[in-house]
Design a protein that fits this description.
By secondary structure, the protein is α+β, with helices and mostly antiparallel strands. It contains seven helices and four strands; from the N terminus they run H-E-E-H-H-H-E-H-E-H-H. Pfam families: dCMP_cyt_deam_1 (PF00383).
């Protein structure tokens, strides 16, 4: 459920997106609020400026949180973002341990406003394969250290 306090911070994320446009960047903005509602960090999309397909604001904030916050604090944060996170960003958000995301536009609404936003092709994937070979580095890495040699 979105509260009036959420709406205030969501409007700020939309303002970050609007400011991005004035800088020549894509119109997406996000911010991360701590457990007390204070803004910890904000970012906008810099994919073109940075020539980096991963420079979405949601992923930038998830990476920041993973580096800068302990897991307990991260779990009590809320990300406010102008558009629903894409699959790449959603994965980063999950891995960073953030507690909640509040977004303004749903992906379907974005595609309605900008049809090219939904024009991504499907990439075929084949697998699994070579289990016995692929498991070796995984098992080596996660194997508990033997004490006393």
């Amino acid at each position: 459920m979105i509260t009036p306090a959420d709406e205030i911070l969501l409007r700020r994320a939309i303002a970050v997106a609007a400011r991005a446009v004035t800088l020549g960047d894509a119109p997406y903005g996000s911010l991360l609020a701590g457990p007390d509602g204070a803004v910890l960090v904000e970012a906008h999309n810099t994919v073109r400026r940075d020539d980096d397909i991963t420079a979405h604001p949601e992923l930038k904030l998830a990476r920041w949180a993973a580096r800068e916050l302990d897991p307990g604090t991260a779990a009590r944060t809320t990300m406010y973002t102008s558009c629903q996170p894409c699959g790449m960003c959603a994965g980063g958000i999950v891995r960073s341990g953030l507690g909640r995301v509040v977004y303004a536009l749903a992906t379907e609404q974005l595609v309605e406003l900008n049809p090219s936003s939904g024009a991504w092709p499907t990439v075929p994937q084949d697998g699994p394969a070579l289990f016995d070979e692929a498991r070796v580095p995984i098992e080596t890495y996660y194997r508990p250290t033997q004490a006393g040699g």
